Amino acid sequence: MLSPTRAGHQQSRKAIMDKKIRVGIIGQGRSGRNIHVAALRRPLMREKFEIAAVTDLIPERCNETKAEFPACTVYPDYKAMLQDKSLELIVNASFSYMHVPISIEALKAGFHVLSEKPLAGCVADVDAVGAAAKEAGRVFAVFQEARFDSTFNKVMEICNSGVLGRIVMARFTRNNFARRWDWQTLREYTGGAFLNTGSHSLDQALKLFGDVMPDKMLCSIQRVNSFGTAEDHIKLLFTKPGHPTIDYEVTSCAVFSPPRYQIYGEFGGLTANPGTIEWKYYKPEEAAPQHLIKEPLPERKYCSEKLEWFENSWKDTGSRGADWMGEKLYMNLYDAIRNGAPLVVRLEDVRRQIAIIEECIKQYENENKK
Ligand SMILES: NC(=O)c1ccc[n+]([C@@H]2O[C@H](COP(=O)([O-])OP(=O)(O)OC[C@H]3O[C@@H](n4cnc5c(N)ncnc54)[C@H](O)[C@@H]3O)[C@@H](O)[C@H]2O)c1
Fold it and tell me: Could you say which of 3.40.50.150, 3.50.50.60, 3.60.15.10, 3.30.360.10 is the CATH number of the domain covering 147-317+344-369?
């Protein structure tokens, strides 16, 4: 039998575990409303989180959430929200250039914080948020939900299974043809395709690349179709011995798009788009033995052999929107807040991503000054 103190301790621990995390969301735009409210209204999320407060510079943007969650408080601004000590978690879905200052303020006020991507435009700012989280002893997470994408995770599983052998090169693309004229095209808003949609693909590419910075990077950036000051076309190659070459492309001027993921392996390859993957490989142990021949081949022949290919395909079932990936991220965040579990998307991952983007944009801006 448990001692009365131990039983009491277990009961209060259970009470904390059962307590929903009260969430305040800053921003009710495409992300705050269409992704975060959408994720948190999912049945599993309602058991763990409660949308308790919202705010937006445009107050009417809070109306739909208030109508859907009547107990939710609408604050006139985020500073008023940060006075509400009944909240535990602040979701920062404001403009990208506000992610760092608002997150630091919220951490200092004692809240756990989930910031939308891109966390920052430079590594110094990533470090400033990291230091604020450490000092406050609060969980700080970045909403890089593409890390939970089912197709990406299946691609990783296939690569890690070894059937393709050593991964030689991985191509990540996120392409379309579109013109854009909103604040996301402005450098001063920490906009631009690299930090915006590009941060999802770079996060995935770095996961496959490994926990290191590349030795060499070659990047070409352009602004083509968008109306602001930031880029909308990025081609980036990076390498490090012992790691796959990464070929990364994010552009809004591709009328004909290549597959989202393409993997070249020692024994085979893979091609994938959201929801579908095809891969094939040969088994080296079953292939005809070959050896190097230095002399010209007899009868002027080329090296030719018939490899037996093993082919596979995978299709995703069900809908896999940002709210679905968001749910996975929120589950991990819940576990981090309540049980001290490690975050899947670590701040050091985000730091590496921002370091690469910062360096590429610096090179681009220096070249364009000449
Ligand atoms: N993870 C994803 O897949 C994803 C998708 C879309 C947007 N985002 C990110 O979410 C952020 C918001 O983008 P969006 O597309 O929702 O933009 P948006 O323009 O649709 O919405 C932003 C909202 O935030 C409000 N806002 C800005 N600063 C505020 C402040 N200080 N206090 C209160 N409200 C404030 C604005 O009034 C606006 O309603 C961006 O950083 C963007 O990169 C991420």
Answer: 3.30.360.10
